[in-house]
Design a protein that fits this description.
seven-stranded mixed beta sheet, mainly beta, 1 helix, 11 strands
Length: 123
């Protein structure tokens, strides 16, 4: 059973940075493809970024150039470095395991969701 625990969220001013971590159960990071999603109050869950087995990365247009997804197989952890944060980035950020599908951006293609970590960006 895969376990995912997010951390690193907090309150920052616009233009600031945060680094989120997704600690996974043993073997998860090296064996599976992982992604980050976010959900703001009153809004649908939104794709943020994903990383494949080969290390290829995918990003939502809204975060390209500002966010970077990476992984550490040794630490069994996936990261999301968030720079130049904007108030519209405010949301609960979750990581999840990709299980299949035509697009990495589709939430239905993922399972084993973490509980999320809150990111709040003030203006």
């Amino acid at each position: 059973q895969v376990q995912l625990v997010e951390s690193g969220g907090g309150l920052v001013q616009a233009g600031g940075s945060l680094r989120l971590s997704c600690a996974a159960s043993e073997g998860t990071v090296v064996s599976y493809q992982l992604g980050w999603f976010r959900q703001a109050p009153g809004k649908e869950r939104e794709f943020v970024a994903a990383i494949t087995w080969s290390g290829s990365t995918y990003y939502a247009d809204a975060v390209k150039g500002r966010f970077t997804i990476s992984r550490s197989n040794v630490k069994n952890t996936v990261y999301l470095q968030m720079n130049s944060l904007k108030p519209e980035d405010t949301a609960v950020y979750c990581c999840a395991v990709f299980r299949g599908g035509s697009k990495y951006s589709l939430p239905d293609g993922y399972h084993y969701w973490g509980q999320g970590t809150q990111v709040t960006v003030s203006s």
